[in-house]
């Protein structure tokens, strides 16, 4: 029989009167006795009885969102502003809105449930600036959405008009959300919060701290206990403290390594599917050989002493270097980059796939390639002793590191050696080795040291992060040991020449294509971003100035405590967190070249040219440079600034997600390493809040928040007075004893 499925009640009733078999979707699925199918239905407002399903729990009445037409009028008149909502990681009752098209405000602060008004991280919202006397002070409390006791206390204070003590007395320009312009909801990973036996509705705890809990209906809560699940938000009623959603699928058991890896990939929107057949069909057939036709418009550098220097185990070798003495006493230094665009032709399936992926993603136990491994690990990789196509930048440089001239060309090279940083350092330092490779490395080092000093003199920043490296079991890929990444002279030797190549290419492509150059900028942070850094330095008697990058660099250089050498490292880590995000952009959309600046590197113009195997931005730059020097043909999309900016927007997103995934992978493997293991390690107090300490364990690159708890385990313990901490564990224990006596 024919069955009509409709959620239109009137239509369903009429159909039944005409003798048709008609069901609502929920009624129909209920006939299958498959509870997991019912769980996948959208949770509708009318199916949720607040009193019946939640008892007497207090709910919040949010302000009504204004209409679309009123938002449009308000934005046009200046009453409202539009921006992207970014929830706080430390306090779910606070957020920032990054404002579009406002000369006065780049960023506005939002505090309190009603002002947040059902916004979710990454939503595009309309906001109204509050009167200055209502501007808020950021809370000194660390408040987690998972902590109902702390959250309920703050909400109660908000309702009664009490003020929660802030980090400082300084008020921040604040606003309230009046409407949601665009929801950017996605599917979220997490777990179900434990509910009362027989409960129909359950709270879902997202893995991402900036996402609120989600109320879902589930008939399989017992089966889903201790499992990672995926949930979709459907709507957020005015009368509900939490948004409503529905169950999507189970990912696996909580704590299982494969499950947790799947969570990392899903949460960070990492494209990790197998390469489609259409993409693989674009690859060259093996055996691949170099033909005479391939050598047209290429300079043969196979006799040059070219070497690559990379981390151990690196198979996608993007770059190689050389340095030779010229007859006039100057040096010729060269950076040779894999010529990926020879294989990845514009608008092919291979090109479009790489464009969408945007970047290779490096996790602790795996690599998710932007390009198929035939290219990334073989034909494009500048492996030692093998002939490869390259895109070369060569400089004539004086003894004191002044650049005489620069040339760009396609080439063919044959690397003499693919070394690790450690191997290159050993060769450079061994006075008994004086072969061509050793001499080349020493010349490169001498010039790189001078280039680095000039860059630092201009105000380039040396920042820190807590990076670690794991030794993994060869079979299970479980972590066996963890060490801090060691940086040698050869690390910054390579870095300086890659920076020089990127800057040289940026200048060239902007000269050739001023309206459609793909560049990378790093905006100077607002001075208010440095408040935590300034305050931290003052605790030890140092003054940090940050009006310019040069002032900041000099301040950080001077903030050294001989008795506590790690203090300066912590300041630099804190400075890193004050920075803005570096982004790709099309030059045609910036009217002032001053906006091209890269704050961190202290250079007026910059791009990415040196890693085309793992970054699509570099492929764009290679194509622009090749077209400009007549080494390759151009095509319409390459010189279309609107298309280029759209690509840049995707690359910025993919690059950011890849960074988040890499950090999450390190965190996962750190937790796996500590599983069933007890150890004593020195930790440093990174920040002190009213109810928590942020602790850093440098050896493991681990940062965590320790909440103050009372004897019942509730997180309402607080420091009653300002406490100064020394960098050792003993004082932390003493403070806990004082508060919980």
Automatic annotation (TrEMBL):
Boundaries of every RNB domain copy: 298-631
Location relative to the cell: Nucleus
GO biological process: nuclear mRNA surveillance of mRNA 3'-end processing; rRNA catabolic process; rRNA processing
GO CC list: cytoplasmic exosome (RNase complex); nuclear exosome (RNase complex)
SUPFAM superfamilies found in the cross-reference section: Nucleic acid-binding proteins (SSF50249)
Stored InterPro entries: Dis3_CSD2, NA-bd_OB-fold, RNase_II/R, RNase_II/R_CS, RNR_Ribonuclease, Rrp44_CSD1
Major localisation: nucleus
GO molecular function, one term: endonuclease activity
Keyword annotations: Exonuclease, Exosome, Hydrolase, Nuclease, Nucleus, RNA-binding, rRNA processing
Xref: SMART domains: RNB
Coiled coil: none
Entry's family note: Belongs to the RNR ribonuclease family.
PANTHER family the UniProt entry points to: EXOSOME COMPLEX EXONUCLEASE RRP44, RIBONUCLEASE
Name this polypeptide is given: Protein DIS3 homolog
Organism the protein comes from: Rotaria magnacalcarata
